[in-house]
Amino acid sequence: TKRKLSIKTDDLITLPQAEPWTVLAHKKPQKGWIPYNPRTIRPAPLTDGNSVKLMSWNVNGLRALLKFEGFSALELAQRENFDVLCLQETKLQDKDVDSVKQCLIDGYENSFWTCSNAKLGYSGTAIISRIKPLSVCYGLGIPDHDSEGRVVTAEFDSFYLVNTYVPNSGDGLKRLSYRTTQWDPSLSNYMKELEKSKPVILTGDLNCAHQEIDIYNPAGNKRSAGFTEEERRSFGSNFLSKGFVDTFRKQHPNAVGYTYWGYRHGGRKTNRGWRLDYFLVSESIADDVHDSYIAPDVNGSDHCPIGLVLKV
Amino acid sequence: TKRKLSIKTDDLITLPQAEPWTVLAHKKPQKGWIPYNPRTIRPAPLTDGNSVKLMSWNVNGLRALLKFEGFSALELAQRENFDVLCLQETKLQDKDVDSVKQCLIDGYENSFWTCSNAKLGYSGTAIISRIKPLSVCYGLGIPDHDSEGRVVTAEFDSFYLVNTYVPNSGDGLKRLSYRTTQWDPSLSNYMKELEKSKPVILTGDLNCAHQEIDIYNPAGNKRSAGFTEEERRSFGSNFLSKGFVDTFRKQHPNAVGYTYWGYRHGGRKTNRGWRLDYFLVSESIADDVHDSYIAPDVNGSDHCPIGLVLKV
DNA sequence: CGTGCAATG
DNA sequence: CATTGCACG
C-alpha cells in the first residue's frame, strides 16, 4: 500500500502554535543558547533573484516511509517546494529502486540511487532532482569505501552536490577507527578534488554532533558513537579546517537545533536530540546561503529533514 | 501492551447467523460430505454427570496473540469454560515464560511449558489447567527428539493428556523422513507405554490432514507437507492402527471441518483449510466422548481451537 | 524502539 | 502472509 508522493494545495500543513521543541529545548538555557524554532527564526523567503532549494533527509528506510500514514511523509518535504532532495538510509536493494521510482511525483524526473551491495537493506542514498544534473558520480572512487552505497554526487551549473551517509561508529565503537582514519579523510580528499573545478556542497547524515550545543546530553555521550572526541576532531580537521562551512552554525551561532532523536527513549517528545545532519559548503559560496534550516515538524523517521536555500 | 486474559459475561460472543465456512465449504458437495457448522451440529451440553472439557490451539506465537486486538483472542477460548487448554507453537523462550504466566486468568494456576532450546522463538507447547495434574512430563524421554519443546504430558485421574506439536515436514519435504520414520513412531511408542497404566488422550497440531475430506484441495497438495502419502500412512499406522481414535471423525464421519487456513492466500475467508489439529483417544474411552468439536470463529492465529468434552 | 533481513510455516 | 530472532542504529 504505497502512496503516491503527490500533494495538493489544501494539504499544506499549518504548524501548531507552540512546538514542543521550543518549550523543551533546554530547561535551563545555558551559555546564551537559544532554541531553534523554524517558525520564528527563519528569514523571509527570497523574492528577487535566483535561488535553489536543496533538502536532505535520513529517512531510516524508504519503503517504511512510503507506508507511513501519520502527519507528514515525503508530502511534507514537498510542501517545501525543493529543487533537489537528498536521502540517506533508504535501505533499498537495487531490485527495489525501479518500483520506488514509480512513487516520485511529477517534476522530479531525475533520480540517482546507491544501494549497499555488502549488506542488503542497509545504508543507501538518493538524489532526487527537478533540475537535470550535468553529471552524476557514485561512490568515492575507492572500492574499499564504495560497497555500502554511501555517496552519490550530482554536478550542477554552479556547484557539486555530494550526498552522503557517513558510517556510524557502531556499538562498542568498533568502527570508530575506520570512520575517522579512513572514511572521513577519503571523503574530504574527494571533496577537495571536486573543489578544484567548482564549489562543493556536502549534505547528509554526517553521524557526528560537532559541539556540545549540538547534542542534548554532551556529558553522558562522550563515548557514544557520534560524539566521541575522535569523531568531533575528525569533523573539524577533515571538513571545517579544510574550508567547508557548517552553514547552520554560521547562520545561528547559538541556536540549539537537532535533526535526530533516537527512538529508544522517546527522545523526540522531550527533544533529546542530536544535530547529525548538515549542509557544509565551500567557503567561496558560504555568503550565498540565504537560509540553512531544520524542519523538525516532519515525522516518519528518527531524523528530520534539513534545508538549504542558496542564491545562485 | 499485553492484555489480561480475563472475560466478563457480557463479552460473550454471539455467533453471526451464517458463517462463511458453512456456505463455502465446498461449492460442489461431494461424496455425501457436509459442512461442519458448530452452531447446528454440536450436541446439547451435558447437564447430568461429570465431564471435563479440554481444548487445544496452535496459537502461532503466543506473544503476538496476547497483543491481538481483533475479534477474540484467548478470551474467546475462555468463553468455552474449558478445564484444560493445550497450546502449540507458543514460540516462547524459557526467559519469556514467567512474564506470560502473569497473563493467565485466575483459576488456571497450573501451567506447564516447553520451549525449543535448539531454535529460539520456535515451536513450544503449554498445558494450562484449572485441575492440578497428578504428574507432568516434558518431552518423549528421547534426547534426539526433545530439544525443540514439542511434547508435554499431564497425568490426570483417569487419563494421560499428551500435548504435541508434530514437526512440519518443511519446504522441499526435507524433514519428511525424520518426521515419518523417527518422530511419529517415537511418539506412538511413548503413548503405548503410557497406555499400559491409563487411557491416553493425544492432542495438538499433528501436522497431517489424514484423508481427502480433511483438506480443501487434496489433488493439489499430494506433495505438500502435511498431506503426503507418507505422512498420511504414518498417521494411520502409528496412531489409528495402534488403537487411537480420531474423535472428530468418529463423531462426524462426513463433516468437512478445518482447523488451519494458511495466511498466504487468504485461505480463511474462502475456507480453503486443512484439518491438522486433533483429539485422539485410547479406544477404551472413545465412547466417553460427548463432543469433539472445532471453533472456527476464533481468530488470532492461522489455526483455530478445537475442543473435547469427555464424560468422566 | 524501529527498520530491514532471514528462517519457518 | 504471518510469526519469530537478529543486525544495525
Short characterization:
The structure is a homodimer of 312-residue chains. Helices cover 22% and strands 22% of the residues of chain A.
Structural write-up:
Chains A, B: It is an enzyme of class 3 (hydrolase). Two copies of one chain form a homodimer. The radius of gyration of chain A is 18 Å and the shape is globular. Mean pLDDT of chain A is 88; it is low at 1-23. Helix content of chain A is 22%, strand content 22%. Chain A is an alpha+beta fold and 312 residues long. Chain A has a six-stranded mixed beta sheet with strand order 4-5-3-2-14-13. A six-stranded mixed beta sheet of chain A has the order 6-7-8-9-12-10. A two-stranded parallel ribbon of chain A has the order 1-11. In chain A, strand 7 and strand 8 form a beta hairpin. In chain A, helix 6 (176-195) runs parallel beside helix 7 (229-240). The chains hardly touch. Chain B binds a DNA duplex (9 and 9 nucleotides) through residues 60-61, 63-64, 89, 91, 93, 119-122, 168, 170-171, 225, 262-266, 301-302.
- Indicate the overall shape of chain A: globular
Helicity level of chain A, as a percent range?
10-25%
Question: What oligomeric state do these chains adopt?
Answer: homodimer
Give me the secondary-structure category of chain A. alpha+beta
Number of helices of chain A: 9
* Overall pLDDT metric of chain A: 88
EC number (chains A, B): 3.1.-.-
Organism (chains A, B): Salix koriyanagi
Site (Interaction with DNA substrate) (chains A, B): 303
Protein name (chains A, B): DNA-(apurinic or apyrimidinic site) endonuclease
